[in-house]
Amino acid sequence: MFDVLAYLFEEYQDPEACNDREGVMRTLAAAGFEDADINDALDWLDILCNINEGAFAAMDESYGLRVYSDSEQKRLPTEVRGLLQFLEHHGALSPAQREMVIDRLLAMPDDEVNVASAKLVTLLVLWVQKAELPILLGEELLDVVNGEPTMQ
């Protein structure tokens, strides 16, 4: 599923282009993805696109520290929680966006929840919301899609 989501992010500049599910499925199948992975990824993306931002809007008005529940701590590795805190602290994510990222990470299979998937989910949340990506942090997030940058 991770590879399908990365491919969608790379290939489609506008998330609304993914509304043609049949067309996107054909494109993904032609690119060599398995039907089960395609369906899982598109279902996951549909939920992200249809998340009621109002459900998380109150988070942007709150102040304080995000405390993770026991079940969240078990599913989200320390490095992922640290990344989310870093991104929020540096203005790449609002508290509401952070909660959307957490929601979508928890919807992924356990073996796919890691720093790379957290970066991709962050990019997808910002992509769906058509939010601006902070330049310096954007390079770090985009390495998950484009590969590690090389020094020149």
UniProtKB/TrEMBL annotation:
Pfam family, one: DUF494
InterPro entries, A to Z: Smg (IPR007456)
Superkingdom of source: Bacteria
Similarity field: Belongs to the Smg family.
Record protein name field: Protein Smg homolog
Organism: Pseudogulbenkiania ferrooxidans 2002
